[in-house]
Amino acid sequence: MAANTSKVVSHGEGLRLQSGPGRDLIFKVTGEDTGGAFDYFIVQVAPHGGPPLHVHHHQEETIHVLKGSYKIRIGDEIFRCKEGDFAYLPSKIPHAFLNLTDDQGEIIVVYTPGGGHKFYEELGPMTRNDTPDPKAVGQVFEKYGMTLLGPPLSLY
Which domain does 101 fall in, by range? Predict the structure, then answer.
């Protein structure tokens, strides 16, 4: 789709991709749709699931909690966010989040600039199995301007 062309996407529709175990993504718009301006996507987060500690070197990120309760690390600070809460995760600041509930959660994520869907197209297939190769995963992070820094957050 050409940049700056309007787009309407029905509930439950969009570009479906996978992230780590139990994290499914539905991109409503990607950087390709927005001329590189931003990505807007819904993340379905598994109970007690979340990404490893990482840093984006060029992308800003926001999280808007739709369903669940989350522990969010931004730099050295830990925050608790519940339904309706919002977090801004600046580029160059390490971050991670964790769904604290026993139920599937849901968040809206925005990346700016856009293009993050290409990262998940490559990452998803390698992280959905039980034993992803840490070196290969780290290389995909680096390829897309991020660095993998540590494990996912713990419940405690």
Answer: 15-115+122-149
